[in-house]
Specification:
By secondary structure, this protein is α+β, with helices and mostly antiparallel strands. It has helices at about 35, 60-65, 75-85, 90-95, 115, 125-135, 195-210, 250-255, 265-275, 280-295, 330-335, 360-370, 375-400, 405-425; strands at about 10-15, 15-25, 25-30, 55, 105-110, 120-125, 160-165, 170, 180-185, 220, 225-230, 235, 245, 250, 265, 310, 315-320, 345. The chain has a six-stranded antiparallel beta sheet, sandwiched between helices. Helix 9 packs antiparallel against helix 10. Belongs to the HipA Ser/Thr kinase family. One of its GO terms (molecular function) is protein serine/threonine kinase activity. Its EC number is 2.7.11.1. This is Serine/threonine-protein kinase HipA.
């Protein structure tokens, strides 16, 4: 996994070069190829980078690319040292690690294009090989010593991409698409993640029970700790085609041209974009449901980066299942309230509001301003507040049986208190 990336990077879709990414003295530049633009299935990389003959460059492209990369500078620098000959520029990192990047395109150095034409290539991994990786993670957090390791870009937590077929796990080679993401129990830059798999699994299951579209989680046990396995929202299985197919996807943050990575977008802008898409009012209500659940479970990380959109060649787009839901309640319980208030991952009224400020009055106003029918915001709050207490206990039993886990108990305690507050706000 070592070696730098020189020259231009090909943007590949369905074995066709759709465009080129270069990095000159003025920064990165993206150009769609005319052959791709003239094709019937031409789909833009992003709503913020539409199909055009002229090159995309400057701040808009730089912001979009930043969302493909790890948000922590230290992780990017470590990736650069191990995978891109020390070059931490976005183009270098994407060229080194972008063969299985999120979305419908592969990013391949020009000299590696022949690999994209070899067809699906995979190798079954024994469970022992996966355990070997997990055992080595404390001293090798990026897995760079494992030649089969397929790293994924973006986010904070170390993770690897796998292919699951007929109950077996495998590695994908060259430009073959993976199907699942395995999040690994490794602390990053002082962030303790040993309970992250159970935490995220519980939050995803609870959110699903409360009507939010999310990816399906599965917890796997390793000697190094619990890991979380989830299907990739940007991959689909087509019985008429070999392997796993890529889906044209980007995050809400990328579609809105937000940046740099981690910078919140306004909830009004997100709702406006969804209202103009193929999902219309349904997608708007789903995003508002996500906001209420973020308040319930203390999910400051539920933001525009974790809300993906599926893009179609006809210009339509729809909201896909959310991912990356991990509660801050366990840490918040240890820290105490103090001056620290977890905040919503979206901006409302030009500021990031504290999660415990979300209530029926605020959500109703936001819903009305987005053009939704009167009472829709309050109805969402009522539904979540009334159903949460029973569902919290049910999901705990399904996940842990009769056992108790401190992190899950902290989430439940916080959520029960928030459910009471949300219910009380309905009387205002």
């Amino acid at each position: 996994m070592s070696g730098g990336v020189g020259g231009r990077i090909a943007l590949v879709a369905n074995e066709m070069v759709a465009g080129w990414l270069t990095d000159g003295g003025d920064g990165p530049s993206l150009t769609y190829r005319s052959e791709y633009l003239d094709g019937p299935q031409a789909t833009p990389l992003s709503l913020s980078l539409p199909l055009a003959e002229d090159a995309h460059s400057g701040e808009a492209l730089g912001r979009w690319l930043s969302h493909l990369l790890p948000s922590r500078r230290g992780v990017r620098e470590q990736l650069a040292s191990e995978c891109a000959s020390g070059d931490a520029r976005p183009v270098a990192l994407i060229g080194a690690l972008g063969a299985d990047a999120p979305g419908g395109f592969s990013w391949l150095p020009e000299r590696a294009l022949r690999l994209a034409r070899r067809g699906p290539s995979r190798e079954v991994l024994a469970l022992a090989a996966m355990r070997q990786l997990a055992a080595a993670l404390p001293r090798d957090p990026l897995g760079a010593s494992h030649p089969w390791q397929r790293l994924t870009l973006g986010g904070r937590q170390p993770k690897t991409a796998l292919l699951r077929e007929s109950g077996s796990y495998g590695r994908v080679l060259h430009a073959t698409a993976s199907s699942h993401i395995l999040k690994l129990p490794v602390d990053v830059e002082g962030v303790e993640l040993s309970d992250a798999a159970l935490n995220e699994c519980f939050c995803l299951l609870l959110a699903d029970a409360l009507g939010l579209a999310v990816v399906d989680p599965e917890v796997l046990g390793f000697d190094a700790g619990a890991a979380l396995l989830t299907p990739r929202f940007d991959r689909v299985v087509d019985e008429g085609l070999p392997g796993v197919q890529r889906r044209h996807v980007e995050s809400l943050a990328q579609a809105l041209g937000a940046g740099p990575a981690g910078e919140p977008v306004t909830l009004a802008a997100a709702l406006s974009l969804l209202g103009a898409g193929g999902g219309g009012r349904d997608d708007q209500r789903m995003l508002l449901r996500a906001v209420v659940i973020a308040s319930l479970l203390c999910l400051p990380g539920l933001d525009a980066s974790n809300c993906p959109l599926a893009l179609a060649a006809d210009g339509r787009y729809r909201l896909l299942p959310c991912h990356g839901l991990r509660s801050l309640a366990p840490s918040f319980a240890l820290l105490g309230s103090g001056d620290y208030l977890p905040r919503l991952g979206f901006v409302i009224d030009d500021r990031r509001v504290a999660l415990d400020v979300i209530d029926a009055t605020l959500l109703e106003r936001v819903a009305r301003e987005a053009g939704l029918e009167a009472g829709s915001g309050r109805a969402l709050v009522r539904e979540v507040a009334e159903r949460a207490p029973q569902l919290l206990q049910r999901v705990r039993r399904e996940l842990l049986g009769s056992h108790r886990h401190p992190a899950i108990e902290a989430i439940i305690t916080h959520a029960l208190a928030r459910a009471e507050s949300l219910a009380a706000s309905l009387g205002h």
